[in-house]
Automatic annotation (TrEMBL):
This is Flagellar hook-associated protein 2. Residues 344-602 form the Flagellar hook-associated protein 2 C-terminal domain. The keyword Manganese does not apply. Signal peptide: none annotated.
Length: 616
């Protein structure tokens, strides 16, 4: 019979002699002994891999404790937590950081910060299709609108969604949306405060007419009791206010309509420039009455400055000139020089008697964050949140004990070198449960007496046992706050908390926990316990990285001690495997030669036998 072995280059001819020798079995037995060094080296490499995994587990735990637990615990907002009381939470919701002083504040809000919101006053679609602005709104041609200095092209071939997209991409600081159900366009400033607004200055008459009469957006809208005023001198004086508009405004001809509404009452004022005067327009506006017979508007002209002023008659009411025709818009814009912009407003309030303004309703002053909700007055108290601090310390001690126990366990558990990783043949001979138990024994004690972890555990215990340098007085250490180490040495530094003692310390000094744990000084020796712990954990983490890298993987790690060791084993195993293949081939070569020799002897024997048979 013929046979082959992976990696073998010999031509095997054993079996030709009829000797009955099981060559494969003999070679396998010979190679079993030869493969022992290879097997042992493979087991050692596996141990290196598992040790790397064990280090990585500790690396992950240590970094998680440092980054998530120690960092958050060491913050002043944790160690000097504050509670807030408010006599009127509807005026403002208030929170305080650890930097806030324990005092009472008075807050009187007179005005909230706001941006500008504009929307169509009614449905805007007049056509049967919304595929283009032409089919939806009936416009034609192309023109531009300006919003906050950004020019936006409008074409009748665009859709309403194209217009919305172009506004939003323009960088004008506003957001546009179109509600298909309401059939209205909405514009919102992206912020609040007096520095925000919607300004159409620079928009031509075609654009203003489009905004005002097609999109139904009140370019001249939201006119409250403070009113709007001409941005420049209109040229109206005592001498010409009774003259025809054609005379007062040279070049003005024809007629137009002004539409004024307070939301419930709407009136259209017909103006003939050849007969109407500035005085007659004022009279017509001021004569508009609501259903109760009350005036809705107050229009005046200051002949000294030449400025026109229009106000809502009643506080809380808003007037709009939306719906005025094309020529009317031109008159409002060019002759009366009314502003085509609306600005947001700042929050205005008194804090502890001092008048202040903010561009937003949420702001922080001296560690206290106010979120204004409405106008009104509220008395606010800031106190140390003792219960929260105690809870935070208690939780931190639990986390500390968990990580310290994990480190102590890994350092103290002993390694039984009689247990090595199982070979494939050994695994086949074992049950799954037995295999699992065996593997756990191999992995136990891989970090026994590890210097990096042992140093970390000792340093952590020392940090809690020592005083914080730089502090004086009654409270200078963790033990002075009621945090003590177990007297049972077998617990290896486990911490316990006396909550009553901690609360008493906080009553005497609300910042005492932060001083002992969170102090971050220019000199390391004067740092608080949490700051020192963070540094210790970082040192240990860096030590693990040098020893085992940042991951459990052995594929890309060629810089750590174990990574290099694993790679060296791989190189040696490759060389050893090549040697074993060569050895196996040599065995087969020898057996081949023996078979060939036996075959020749057998042939010669048969020949001699045949000769003897013939001679007889």
């Amino acid at each position: 019979m013929t046979s082959s072995v992976s990696g073998s280059s010999s031509n095997r001819v054993y079996g030709l002699s009829g000797s009955g020798i099981d060559v494969d079995s003999m070679v396998e037995k010979l190679m079993t002994a030869a493969r022992q060094p290879y097997t042992k080296m493979t087991q050692k490499q596996t141990v290196v891999e598992w040790k790397k995994e064990a280090y990585n587990t500790m690396y992950t735990s240590i970094n998680s404790f440092r980054n998530d637990k120690v960092f958050n615990f060491g913050m002043k907002s944790t160690l000097a937590a504050k509670s807030v009381t408010s006599s009127n939470s509807s005026v403002a919701s208030v929170t305080a950081t650890g930097d806030a002083i324990n005092v009472n504040h008075t807050l009187k809000v007179s005005q909230l910060a706001s941006g500008v919101t504009q929307s169509s006053t009614e449905k805007i679609t007049t056509g049967t299709s919304k595929s283009t602005l032409a089919s939806q709104l009936g416009i034609s041609g192309s023109f531009n609108i300006n919003i906050n200095g950004k020019q936006i092209a409008v074409s009748s071939t665009q859709s309403i969604n194209d217009l919305v997209s172009n506004i939003n991409k323009s960088g004008a600081g506003v957001t546009a949306t179109y509600d298909t159900t309401q059939d209205r366009l909405y514009l919102y400033t992206n912020g609040t405060g007096s520095e925000t607004g919607i300004d159409y200055t620079g928009t031509g008459l075609a654009g203003l007419n489009f905004l005002n009469n097609n999109l139904k957006i009140g370019v001249f809208g939201n006119i409250d009791s403070t009113g709007i005023t001409s941005s420049a001198d209109t040229g109206i004086t005592d001498a010409n206010k009774a003259s025809s508009l054609q005379t007062a405004f040279a070049g003005l001809t024809g007629s137009f309509n002004l539409k004024i509404s307070d939301g419930t009452t709407t009136s259209t004022i017909a103006v003939d420039t050849s007969t109407d005067t500035m005085e007659s327009i004022l009279t017509k506006i001021n004569a508009i009455k609501d259903s109760s017979g009350n005036s809705i508007a107050d229009a005046t002209i200051d002949t000294t400055t030449g400025k026109f002023i229009l106000k809502a008659k009643t506080d809380g009411e808003n007037l709009s000139l939306t719906g005025s025709d094309y020529a009317g818009i031109s008159f409002l814009n060019n002759q009366l020089k009314l502003s085509v912009k609306q600005q947001g407003q700042d929050a205005e309030f008194k804090l502890d008697g001092t008048t202040m303004t903010q561009t937003t309703n949420k702001f922080t002053v001296s560690g206290v964050t106010y979120n204004l909700q409405s106008t009104g007055t509220s008395n606010i108290g800031i106190q140390t949140d003792t219960d929260k601090i105690v809870s935070s310390v208690k939780k931190f001690i639990e986390d500390y004990n968990t990580i310290l126990s994990s480190i102590n366990t890994k350092v103290s558990e002993k390694r039984d070198t009689d247990y090595m990783p199982l070979t494939d043949d050994q695994k086949e001979a074992m049950s799954d449960d037995d295999e699992k138990i065996w593997t756990e024994k191999v992995k136990t004690g891989l970090l026994h007496n590890d210097s990096t972890l042992e140093t970390l555990a000792n340093s952590m215990r020392s940090a809690f046992a020592s005083k914080v340098s730089g502090l004086t007085g009654k409270y200078t250490s963790a033990s002075s706050l009621g945090i003590s180490t177990s007297v049972d040495y077998t617990e290896n530094g486990k911490l316990y908390l006396d909550e009553d003692k901690l609360k008493a310390a906080l009553q005497e000094d609300p910042d005492v926990v932060y001083k002992i744990f969170g102090t971050d000084s220019a000199t390391d020796k004067n740092d608080g316990i949490a700051v020192k712990l963070s540094a210790m954990l970082k040192t240990a983490s860096d030590g693990i990285v040098k020893q085992a890298g940042i991951t459990a993987s052995t594929k890309s790690d060629i810089t750590s001690v174990l990574g290099k060791q694993y790679k060296e084993y791989t190189t040696q195993l490759t060389a050893l495997n090549t040697k074993l293949i060569k050895m196996e081939n040599q065995y087969y070569t020898k057996f081949n030669a023996m078979e060939e020799a036996l075959s020749k002897i057998s042939q010669q024997s048969s020949y001699v036998t045949s000769l003897l048979g013939t001679s007889s």
